[in-house]
Amino acid sequence: RSGERQRRVLLFLVCVCVCESGAEGLRYSLAEELERDSFVGNIAEDLGLSPSQLAARQARVVSEGNERLFHLNAKTGALTAKESLDREEMCPRRDTCT
């Protein structure tokens, strides 16, 4: 019984540690019809990391589907738009687009 209790406590602590180390999310607001290669933000600065820390953590931009809308320069932390972004094209018949 004592061994089972220790395993449960250990499992609980592992679960707490995993939950506390979750990924962070950032949100940026973009101007409509943003030009290609426009600067969006600096992810390293916004997370309080140096660019080398960002690269060591293998930071990447994840998009839904196959379309890659942004480029992350892991050496500087700069996030830029890969293409010109058009809200009406991306989110037709919607007032807001996320």
UniProtKB/TrEMBL annotation:
Cadherin N-terminal domain location: 26-98
UniProt signal peptide: 1-25
Alphabetical list of Pfam families matching this protein: Cadherin_2
Keyword annotations: Glycoprotein, Membrane, Signal
Cellular component terms per the entry's GO annotation: membrane
InterPro entries (alphabetical): Cadherin-like_sf (IPR015919), Cadherin_N (IPR013164), Protocadherin/Cadherin-CA (IPR050174)
Molecular function via GO: calcium ion binding
Domain of life, per lineage: Eukaryota
Location relative to the cell: Membrane
Main location: membrane
Name of this chain's protein: PCDB1 protein
The keyword rRNA processing belongs to this UniProt entry's keyword annotation: no
